[in-house]
Design a protein that fits this description.
Blueprint: E1 6-11, E2 15-23, E3 29-38, E4 42-43, E5 46-47, H1 50-66, E6 74-79, E7 84-100, H2 103-117, E8 122-132, E9 149-162, H3 164-176, E10 181-186, H4 187-195, E11 205-210, E12 214-221, E13 224-232, H5 235-246, H6 250-259, E14 272-274, E15 281-283, H7 284-309, H8 311-314, E16 323-326, H9 328-332, H10 336-344, E17 348-350, H11 364-387
Parallel strand pairs: 1-6, 6-10, 11-16, 16-17
Antiparallel strand pairs: 1-2, 2-3, 4-5, 7-9, 8-9, 11-12, 12-13, 14-15
Helix pairs in contact: 4-11, 5-6, 5-7, 7-10
Length: about 400
């Protein structure tokens, strides 16, 4: 592809976005084409309609290609957490005598650990929470261990496996669209590495991605995800609740949500919301209560996640760092992060790309995926120059 652009397919729970992007100056990005299409969506258990998803992807890709003067044969696909399973493993390589650690040794550690997992699904990526060299020091970047003499290389490693349903549907679809090289990226990992500061990830960090039909919570350590879980619910379910509560259509529910603010306390019962056309009025208190009820259901899922896996740590070790919140859900509801903070009794913060215009939660996934894809391209180019070999196709 010309101009070193990369093609990204960002799959969210209710829409897909296909776009082309490249690195700009001062850590910015430049986009040369973008199109979003809605589809029937996904739940935590998979697609509601694979055919609806196919139509949306075809429409998005076709729209961008029609306005692009060139050939697009390679694509990076963001995989939603509903189609990702994470496995973690502590693994060790021992050497008969001291040797300087190389990139090949680190890769051998990953490969050996993966072989011991005996997983049935395809591993699309691996990353490290940290490495150690037997000296109790944690290295959060593999480059820090390169060249260090040691007899022991240990790693707390994360492996990301893609669900067969997603792999088969997307691979067949993109092959039909003449993409020769298809790369899959775990969306939550991309967001965690891009949105959360490195220093914070040297301890436990948390990312809550509130989507349209599904949301997810993940625990991050270093450059790896320790555990993640997807649950049904998001801004879409809140819109449905507004429609049912007031007997209104979807467009009016969206209008109500755009004007709502749930960050404050109680509001007077007599305070009314009036539509833009002045046709109807509803109680602001009832509106806020309906929205808060939907957010409370999300919070219950988050609490259940921590109670299931981290009951002892949640109020102690995990209490140090805030829960970072992103996604179109938090961007659509004014005051959502503040309400979630009160409901969970935890400090929360909204995290967004640090970019002009794109500094909104609904852009988090696509910018994070672009950043990861460009990093992969740069790394692959460096390896090709180093060994003077062709890139491996997936």
């Amino acid at each position: 592809m010309r101009n070193e652009s990369v093609a990204i397919l960002d799959v969210r729970s209710y829409e897909v976005t296909f776009f082309l992007g490249l690195k700009g100056v001062n850590d910015t990005f430049v986009f040369s084409g973008c199109h979003t299409e809605k589809y029937d969506g996904i739940s935590k258990d998979g697609f509601f309609s694979a055919e609806s998803f196919r139509r949306a992807v075809v429409a998005a890709v076709t729209s961008v290609r029609q306005n692009f003067d060139g050939v697009i044969g390679e694509i990076y696909v963001g995989v939603p957490s509903a189609f990702i399973s994470v496995a973690t493993k502590g693994h060790t390589l021992s050497f008969p005598s001291k040797r300087k650690i190389s990139a090949q040794d680190v890769e051998a550690l990953y490969e050996s650990g993966l072989n011991e997992l005996l997983a049935n699904e395809q591993c699309i990526r691996h990353s490290d929470m940290y490495f150690t060299l037997g000296d109790n020091r944690k290295y959060f970047n593999a480059q820090e261990v390169y060249g260090v003499p040691t007899t022991l290389l240990q790693g707390a490693l994360s492996y990301y496996f893609i669900a067969d349903e997603f792999l088969d549907i997307v691979t067949a679809l993109l092959n039909d669209l003449d993409f020769q090289d298809i790369h899959f990226l775990p969306t939550n990992l991309a967001q965690a590495l891009y949105l959360l500061p490195e220093k914070r990830r040297e301890g436990y960090a948390f990312l809550l991605d509130i989507g349209f039909l599904t949301s997810s919570i993940c625990v991050v350590y270093g450059n790896g995800i320790v555990r993640e879980e997807t649950f049904d619910g998001g801004v879409g379910t809140i819109l449905v609740s507004l429609m049912q509560t007031f007997g209104i259509d979807y467009e009016m529910a969206e209008e109500i949500l755009r004007g709502a603010n749930v960050s404050g306390g109680g509001v007077p019962k007599e305070l009314m919301w009036t539509s833009e056309r002045g046709e109807v009025s509803f109680s602001v208190q009832t509106i806020n209560d309906t929205i808060k009820c939907g957010l409370d259901e999300l919070c219950e899922n988050v609490e259940n996640f921590f109670d299931k896996y981290y009951r002892e740590k949640y109020s102690t070790v995990f209490a140090v760092n805030p829960i970072s919140v992103t996604g179109e859900g938090v961007g659509s509801i004014m005051g959502a992060a503040e309400h979630i903070s009160k409901r969970l009794n935890r400090l929360t913060e909204t995290v967004v790309p640090d970019l002009p215009y794109y500094d909104k939660p609904n852009f988090s996934s696509r910018i994070a995926l672009l950043n990861m894809a460009l990093s992969d391209v740069k790394k692959r180019s460096w390896i090709q120059r180093l060994f003077n070999i062709g890139g491996r196709k997936r």
